[in-house]
Amino acid sequence: MAVTDFFAGEIATELLKQLIFISAKAWKYKSIADRLITLIETIQPTIHEIQYSGVELPAHRQAQIGMLVNTLEKGNKLTEKVLSSRRWNMYRQFTLAKKMEKLEKSISDFLKNQILTHILADVHQLRANADVRFDRVERSLTGLEEQLGSMKIGGGGMIRDAMKIAEATMEIETSSDCEKFGVGLEMGKRKVKKMMFNAEGGIFGISGMGGVGKTTLARDLEHDNEVRCYFENKIMFLTVSQSPVLDELRARIWGFLTGYEGINHVPDWNLQYDSGVKTKKLVILDDVWTRKALDSLTSNLPSCTILVVSRSKLADPNATYDVEVLREDESISLFCLCAFGQKSVPPGFDKDLVKKVAGECKGLPLALKVTGASLKDRPEMYWKGALQRLSKGEPADETHESRLLHHMEASLTDLDETARECFLDLGAFPEDRKIPVDILINMWIEVHDLDEEVAFATLVDLSHKNLLTLGKDPRLGSTYASYYDVFVTQHDVLRDLALHLSNKGKVNRRERLLMPKREEELPKTWGKNCDEPYNAQIVSIHTWEMDEMSWSDFDMDFPKAEILMLNFSSDKYVLPPFLSKMTRLKVLVIINNGMSPATLHDFSMFPNLSKLRSLWLERVHVPELYNTTIPMKHLHKMSLILCKINNCFDQTGVDVSSIFPKLGDLTIDHCDDLVTLPSTICKMTSLNSLSITNCPRLSELPKNLSKLQALELLRLYACPELKALPVEICELPQLKYLDISQCVSLSCLPEDIGKLKTLEKIDMRECYISDRVRSAVSLESLRHVICDTDVAFIWEEVERAVPGLKIEAAEKCFSLDWLDE
């Protein structure tokens, strides 16, 4: 079956089941769910009579039923979001509740107009005037032939999604998510869909070498209309990677299949529905490396479809589609798209030269994209040199994938030395993980001595050359933009290239000491020459839990190390002893990829890091500061992400201003135990930027906020319990940017906000403030206000009083997708 037939009655039944599920499980939505249940039960009998009437309704009646069906479909999607929403995400729960209220109003309005009653009367009249009754299956086929893709009510009240019957053509287009390179992709989609649609569940595979387009195909299937229709929009996409945290992935699959999300442990892996709700669901597992990992994730699953994307054939060969390299004509089209911005060689350019360069990429999409982008806007003589370099990088005895590394290394010659070094730094990050732009830019600022503007320009340049993928975000690159919740990603093969180039030569002589994947312990080659110092400037370690014994064989000396990245998955972690000897360390990144915050041990060595300028802690318990007596004089930037704060800034006898005398940038994000911002933070008079964001329990700001005389940027977005801004905020003499977006409990701005003479920009999108503030007309430096359309009127007087002021309608840009890792 290529397309599932949806019936109005079945949609209503499914919605009813979902609402019963919500009423029993999600108490915050219980009352609205119960009211919706009553409404659906009211209309069900009428819908069923229309559904099984066998009558062909007039077009206007079909349109009216279509309105109801669309509403019910939206209701189904909404209930899916409600069931999958996380309890701690207060803002999302608030917005979903509002949408459920709108759904109730839409269905109520439909009933008030008695449209269903009129339609039923027409059904009875048509029955009386006609003696023919069509079979439901015949009616479905007739509807498909006569009005493919349109909605038909009759013989079951179906909604028919348009079936794609046109043959695939050589159409190459670039979208925001993937490059659709014509025949190969369309043929692959047809074959995989045929396999999945012709079976009732099971495990299917997409296999092929790195860079051939497996993930592109899987992503396109995820968004394909026929696939979404067949699986009723119940699709989960998970990246497994070479070093998976299987317990976390199992828990997420459990949550997707059962609706019970947010659990940390799966008690019994025999996942069966108690409610009797049986729906088709698709789980796409991308980048699976081993049979063991696949078996662990898929054993004892209930009836569902699993699509495994891997370099190896892990599914049954008869249920696996092998992604092949592109044909010559497809290769040239994709290559030209990246090199010239069109699908063919432009007039006057040497076609034979283009054909030879594209031929060196051996039909591999990733190589074609990277090589094409590196030659964009270059003269023909430069192309001839590139062809020579590509030709030299192809030893006859190497595999296709190994040759790719040589080809792509040649394409890096187009980069200047700094950009090339920045590209190599990307190998320090774990595979298949989103890389926070903030960490990346901080690294480049410190280790390559770049200004922030130059570092950002380098990031954009690497993205334009297809060497990384920069996330789409309206804030990116704008004035006062923050980067800690904006990310870049990198293809596995590009990461392999960075590792391949960084790991050349003797271990002690490398400028970067990087672990390709997560291991139980450090590579043994690292510990063989501990009597000799290591020259690495960047050290990246990726392990599980580490204790004192785990470090015992690695008493290493890093006299030149400036950046240390510690990635691990555990609830406790002992910091490496050699950290205390990294006297030149400037950037320290500690990230726990486990499911709960980890406790760090031996944090007392931090005061020895006298040159440390940037500290990033993620998903850990922030260490207590009362043992810290030696100030971290050079620490300028500190980011606490998904951490447990544990009142670390508000301990008796602790003067945080003396511990961090030069801290200029403090970020606290997604820290759910932060209820009030400690007043001691206001003693950090050197603070230039303060970001307290996505903290669901934060309800109050300190009244002595005015002591932050150097503060220019104040971000408070997505703090749903924050009810008021202290009037002292109006005493900040340097404040230029205020972000209170998604603070849904804020009802007004401070009356004296007009005192902020330096304020240039306010972001208050999705913030329900509707009262005008008279003093705002005195905001003489204000240049930009972002707000929702329905509250823009409160700025009308200010817009007339302040020359050059721009009032911008809000654009949705906040996302929690990155938490899905």
From TrEMBL:
Residues in the signal sequence: none
Q: Where is the RPW8 domain?
A: 1-149
- SUPFAM superfamilies, per this entry? P-loop containing nucleoside triphosphate hydrolases, RNI-like
Pfam families from the UniProt entry? LRR_Zer-1, NB-ARC, RPW8
Keyword annotations of the record: ATP-binding, Leucine-rich repeat, Nucleotide-binding, Plant defense, Repeat
PROSITE patterns hit by this protein: RPW8
Supply the InterPro entries for this chain. Apaf_helical (IPR042197), LRR_dom_sf (IPR032675), LRR_Zer-1 (IPR056845), NB-ARC (IPR002182), P-loop_NTPase (IPR027417), Powdery_mildew-R_dom (IPR008808), WH-like_DNA-bd_sf (IPR036388)
What does the record list as GO biological process?
A: defense response
Can you tell which superkingdom this protein's organism belongs to? Eukaryota
Q: Name one GO molecular function term.
A: ATP binding
* Family affiliation: Belongs to the disease resistance NB-LRR family.
Designated name of the protein: RPW8 domain-containing protein
Q: Which organism is it from?
A: Eruca vesicaria subsp. sativa (Garden rocket)
List the top taxonomic levels of the source.
Eukaryota, Viridiplantae, Streptophyta, Embryophyta, Tracheophyta
